[in-house]
Specification:
The chain is α+β, with helices and mostly antiparallel strands. The protein has helices at 3-52, 58-86, 88-91, 100-103, 106-125, 127-133, 149-175, 183-214, 223-226, 230-278, 283-294, 324-333, 344-354, 432-436, 452-457; strands at 301-306, 309-322, 337-338, 359-365, 377-379, 404-407, 415-418, 424-431. It is elongated. The two termini are 47 Å apart. Residues 1-25, 89-96, 280-310 and 435-458 have low confidence and may be disordered.
Length: 458
């Protein structure tokens, strides 16, 4: 079989697997979306009626209405964002003629478009809430809006919910500009913005508009009679209402500042490495850094058959504690992949190399089901899933998110399923040719450990 045909088959096989994973994940997302819409629909009428009611029972409607509306909005947003994110792996290779920023951000662009459309619908359908809630204004003398001001809160909550996917898309696109930042770090700042900013808007509306109207601190009225109101605002309401917004913005800014610093350090390291590499004529010296500073490489060759081709490769222990995706990207950049195990002998080799450490290997769960065999698992290089050594009771897919495999947790050599975000060492499988070629791997994908810069300087 030719190399091009092999690549085509592997591409189709991987695309079909990604499609199956995305299809299997649609069910929970759809269920969550329906539940969220149902709760939101139940709470919104109570919130509206409670806001415009002047009777003593208005709180009996406002409180459950606000709770149901808030929970429903939260669940709906999470379901939408997760749905957009799940489809990314399926659609990111479509439309080859599209610009790179389109091909690289399909989920983000869909989220932004959906958010823009949702924001337009909200402003058209629920504008009456804003109009009624703000009819008394801030500076006038009309104190008849103490009940209807809560319609302003309902409007802000609905609009924030509609805009949340767009916030996710925009921040995610911006975070992707930092090429040396891993997915976990990007996810932290993206989710902080997605939920922090809408929550901050809702919180500020409560403390800076709704409660002041309820307590007759607004409308302000004549300054000569109401100058004293400045003190509860300065020393109470403004700090109380503004702290989530200030904290969220500070958190987002701090993370992006750290991203920029990591990016600068990585560029400096890469240039420093290239300079030292170019000044060295000793091939062994060129690779001494890679083997001694990063990898502990026992000489344990093995041969893997793939169709008509046979490639000689060796297992390599990598001690840095990183997520599965980070290790996988580094292994690919080095010309290999995370370890695949097809026999008891190979399992023993990996166990010996790990030397008692819990290590990542290349197993990936198919979809959301559970079971030990090939119907539920595949190797990251699409090698046949013919051998397993699960620990008794495993895999159990605890919590529904254990979609990768590591070795040696409960007992030496046994396998356990775990979420891809767990951080630990790994065993790579590197072709023999990759360890002797004259050009080292590019470090744009290998810098999982930023302390590597200091290691090299030593």
């Amino acid at each position: 079989m030719s190399l091009s045909k092999t690549l085509d088959v592997n591409y189709l096989r991987r695309a079909m697997a990604d499609q199956a994973d995305a299809e299997s994940d649609k069910g929970p997302a759809i269920t969550a979306f329906v539940v969220g819409i149902t709760l939101f629909s139940m709470g919104l009428p109570l919130l509206i009626i409670g806001s415009i009611s002047t009777g003593e029972d208005n709180l009996a409607m406002l409180i459950p209405g606000a709770i149901l509306t808030g929970i429903g909005a939260f669940v709906t947003v999470v379901a939408l964002v997760v749905s957009f994110h799940r489809e990314d792996s399926v659609h990111h290779q479509e439309d080859d003629e599209a610009p790179d920023w389109v091909k690289n951000n399909p989920s983000e662009l869909r989220a932004i478009a959906a958010s823009a459309f949702g924001g337009f619908i909200v402003t058209e359908l629920f504008h009456f809430m804003w109009y009624e809630g703000t009819s008394c204004g801030v500076w006038g003398n009309d104190y008849s809006c103490m009940g209807s001001v809560w319609l302003t809160l309902a409007y802000v909550a609905i609009l924030s919910t509609a805009l949340a996917p767009g916030i996710w898309g925009g921040v995610s696109m911006f975070a992707k500009n930092f090429t040396y930042v891993n997915d976990q770090q990007r996810g932290e700042v993206v989710w902080l913005a997605t939920f922090g900013l809408p929550f901050a808007a809702i919180w500020a509306t409560i403390w800076l508009y709704c409660l002041p109207h309820t307590w007759t601190l607004l409308p302000w009225g004549p300054w000569g009679e109401n100058w004293w109101k400045i003190f509860p605002f300065i020393f109470g309401l403004i700090p109380m209402g503004g702290w989530p917004l200030f904290a969220t913005i500070a958190g987002i800014g701090g993370k992006f500042k750290q991203f920029a610093e990591d990016e600068k350090r990585a560029h400096e390291f890469e240039e420093d490495f290239k300079t030292k590499l170019a000044s060295s004529s000793d091939e062994t010296m060129k690779f001494g850094f890679s083997e001694e500073k990063i990898l502990d490489s026992p000489d344990l060759p093995l041969t893997k058959e793939s169709g008509e081709d046979a490639t000689s490769s060796k297992y390599v222990f990598v001690p840095e504690e990183m997520s599965w995706n980070e290790h996988n990207e580094r292994a690919i950049a080095m010309g290999g992949h995370l370890a695949t195990i097809t026999s008891a002998e190979e399992n023993e080799q990996v166990t010996n190399i790990a030397d008692g450490k819990v290590v990542w290997i290349g197993g990936i769960r198919k979809g959301g089901g559970n079971g030990p065999g090939a119907e539920h698992w595949r190797w990251c290089n699409d090698h046949p899933w013919t051998y397993t050594n699960w620990h008794p009771g495993e895999p159990n897919n605890w919590g529904g998110g254990e979609n990768r495999v590591h070795l040696g947790l409960q007992a030496p050599g046994t396998w356990n399923d775990v979420g891809e975000g767990w951080r630990g060492a790994a065993v790579y499988q590197i072709p023999e040719a990759a360890s002797t070629e004259s050009n080292p791997p590019q470090f744009t994908s290998i810098l999982g450990d930023m302390n590597i810069h200091e290691k090299y300087k030593e």
